[in-house]
Task: structure prediction
Amino acid sequence: MRQVDDRYTGDTQTSISTLTLIDKKGRERNRELKMFSMDKTDVEKSIVYFLAPTDVKGTAYMSFDWEDESREDDSWLYLPALQQVKRVAASDESGAFMGSDFSYADINGMDLEDFDYTLLKESEMVSGHDCWLIESRPKNSNVVEKTGYTNAQSWVRKDIFMVVQGKIEVKKGNKTKYFSATDLELIDNIWTAKTLQMVTTRNGKKEHASVFKFAEILYNQQVDESRFDTQAMQRGI
Result:
C-alpha cells in the first residue's frame, strides 16, 4: 500500500473532466470541471474549478495534502453565491463532494498511516489483470469520523500498483460504496484512469452513482503556484 501511495503521478497535472451524477431512477446531471495539481516535496496542492452548468459555475475547491503526517491537511471551498471562501474542517471530510458519491476524503486522498492493512487474497483477477485484495481498517475512531468509513477492500493491480476496484463500508446509513477505475491509459509514461466511478448502495440496492470522465490530462506542464491561493479561487479560472 505504500507503493500505491508513492506511485508517481507527475510533478504537475492539469485535467478537464465531466462529473456525472446519476440518481436511482437513472436521471443524470453533468458538471464540467478543470483541475490543476502540483506535487512538491512537503505538500501536494490541488484546485478544482467548476465550469458548468450555471448553478455551480465559479465554484472552486482547493486542498493541501501535507507530507508531514502529524500536520492536518487543509481544504477550502468557494461558493460564488455567498462570495466567500469557507475552510472545510477535517470533521467535514466525510461529506459528499458537491453532491456526488465521492467524499471530500476521497478527493483529497487518505493518509496511509491512518489505517491497518491485511492481505485478504494473494491473487484475484479484475478485468483480466492479477490483483492483490487488501483490507484497510481505520486505526481509531477519529479516522472513522474524518473519513466516514469503517472498512474498505481494495483490489490493487500487481503490475502497476494501482487501485482499480474498491468496496467501502460507510459508517452512516447502512451504506456500501463500490469504486472502479477503468479506461486505463499510459499518458506520459504514467498509468492513468480516464474513468472513475463510485456507486452508493443501501441494503444491497443502488441508491446513487457518480462518474468522473477525463477528456484531457496533461502531466508535467507549467503550472503557476500562485493559482493555489484563496484569492485565486475567487478570481476563477
